[in-house]
UniProtKB/TrEMBL annotation, chain A:
The lineage of its organism: Bacteria, Pseudomonadati, Bacteroidota, Flavobacteriia, Flavobacteriales. It comes from Flavobacterium celericrescens. Keywords: Membrane, Transmembrane, Transmembrane helix. The chain crosses the membrane at residues 12-31, 51-83, 112-129, 135-162. The keyword Transmembrane applies. This is Rod shape-determining protein MreD. It comes from the Bacteria.
Automatic annotation (TrEMBL), chain B:
Involved in formation and maintenance of cell shape. InterPro entries: Cell/Rod_1 (IPR042177), Cell/Rod_MreC_2 (IPR042175), MreC (IPR007221), MreC_beta-barrel_core (IPR055342). Signal peptide: none annotated. It comes from Flavobacterium celericrescens. Belongs to the MreC family. Keywords: Cell shape. This is Cell shape-determining protein MreC.
Length: 167, 276
């Protein structure tokens, strides 16, 4: 399938999943997973980077509208989209650009590192901007850690689900 | 000129990032000031329509409970009606005269949030029905919040479960005033601060809205006293209140317009204005 069509479908699916299902989970009363970060991470490595920036901005601002949260999702996903190449380099080594890396291929240690790191950074920015007070750093960190684990689990499940079946 | 254009082309990716980052940070910082951002809120037609559809499904699943709530409210109103001294008196004169100051409009919650520190509720009534910013919102059990932003068909409400919310409240039996705030922790409890030490408090006493408020009528129920603390710095009481309302499950709400709010505020402004 054409890449841009696939990405548009992913955009809509992740947005609606987040709004309709994942925002209503409220595990222990306050924990919600944010697996829409997968949209940013699953974006093809060799495609246009500016489109990814614009895409994550649009995804974030739509989510902010639905959550009434100002611009926290927008900022967090924008920063994640910007530092994505660095994260790829960190987890796959320098040569990541020359091979087509697909996260959905196989769950290897490198991919788990990438997922955990990306989710942690995204959630930390998200919760920091939500609380907006450095004095609450402990609360922010504990919430970030718990949510990271939750989102990570959901992301793994989603990756297993959408993984193309190879025989 | 050539160099400037070259620079822009060379760094277009970075510049795009900085531009978008600037926009999103502005939105974030704006949202932490008193009034929310003008455009990014759920009182617009796209998000409102989505939440309305979702709510239609949820509503169907909770029909039984809602019926029970309506029946109990009906029973309460019937009780008022049957206990009139004279059945010839029409219901308007049954209530105190000052209640005619208030106009009540109905709305339905289509989006409720309670898991962050600044919680907002979206309802399906907007400026077309006469809703405006800073009107009080209650339901049959007690207070819900204050209208924040309105669009033609939707409105967002600053819930009492919002650390920015501050509502005038009093003890039902002694008329001592305090401010109702929320510490951002437990969704079943709010805090009443700045209650003078003279007030005699007991666990289980009722807290209602106070008469100082321009937004709510007096004596709307809020909750019961759960725990009492003494603030060492200010020597005022801080009281933990168990809310009557279950803020995690809201259905129909009533929006209250105070018709004489403007008159009162004008009078107060004239009184406190410096004399020439």
């Amino acid at each position: 399938m054409n890449n841009s069509v696939l990405n548009s479908i992913r955009f809509i699916v992740f947005l609606s999943l987040q709004v309709l299902i994942f925002n209503n989970i409220n595990l222990f009363g306050y924990l919600n997973p944010y697996p829409y970060v997968l949209f940013i991470l699953l974006y093809p490595v060799n495609s246009n980077k500016s489109v990814l920036l614009l895409g994550s901005f649009a995804l974030g601002i739509l989510l902010d509208m639905f959550c009434n949260s100002g611009g926290i999702h927008t900022t967090a996903s924008l920063i994640l989209a910007f530092i994505r190449p660095t994260l790829f380099k960190f987890s796959f080594g320098l040569s990541y650009e020359y091979q087509t890396v697909k996260i959905a291929d196989k769950i290897s240690p490198e991919r788990i590192t990438l997922l955990l790191l990306a989710i942690f950074i995204h959630h930390f920015i998200l919760f920091y901007l939500e609380y907006f007070r450095i004095g609450l750093l402990f609360t922010i960190l504990s919430r970030t850690l718990l949510s990271t684990l939750f989102t990570f689990t959901i992301c793994l499940l989603i990756i297993y689900l959408i993984k193309p079946n190879k025989r | 000129m050539q160099q400037i254009i070259n620079f822009i082309i060379k760094n277009s990716y970075r510049l795009l990032f900085l531009l978008l980052l600037g926009i999103s940070l502005t939105l974030t910082i704006k949202s932490h000031s008193y009034h929310r951002s003008e455009y990014v809120n759920s009182a617009n037609s796209i998000t409102g329509a989505v939440y309305k559809k979702v709510n239609e499904v949820n509503e169907y699943l909770s029909l039984k409970e809602k019926n029970k709530d309506l029946a109990s409210e009906n029973a309460l109103l019937k009780e008022l009606l049957f206990n009139k001294k004279d059945t010839l008196i029409t219901s308007k004169t049954l209530f105190r005269n000052d209640l005619n100051n208030y106009k009540v409009m109905v709305g339905k919650v289509v989006k409720n949030s309670f898991n962050v520190r600044e919680n907002y509720i979206t309802i399906n009534a907007g400026s077309d029905k006469g809703l405006k910013t800073d009107m009080g919102v209650i339901n049959d059990k007690g207070i819900v919040g204050i209208v924040e932003k309105t669009s033609a068909n939707y409105a967002t409400i600053q819930s009492v479960l919002n650390i920015k919310s501050k509502i005038n409240a009093k003890l039902k039996n002694s008329n001592h005033f305090g401010s109702l705030v929320w510490d951002g922790r437990n969704v079943g409890y709010a805090q009443l601060i700045d209650v003078p030490r003279l007030a005699s408090l007991r666990k289980g006493d009722s807290i209602v809205t106070g008469g100082n408020s321009d937004i709510f009528p007096e004596n709307i129920p809020i909750g019961k006293i759960d725990k009492i603390f003494i603030d060492r710095k200010t020597n005022y009481y801080t009281i933990n209140i168990r809310l009557f309302n279950d803020m995690t499950s809201l259905g129909y709400v009533y929006v209250i317009e105070n018709k004489k709010k403007k008159e009162k505020q004008q009078l107060e402004a004239i009184t406190t204005a410096p004399k020439k």
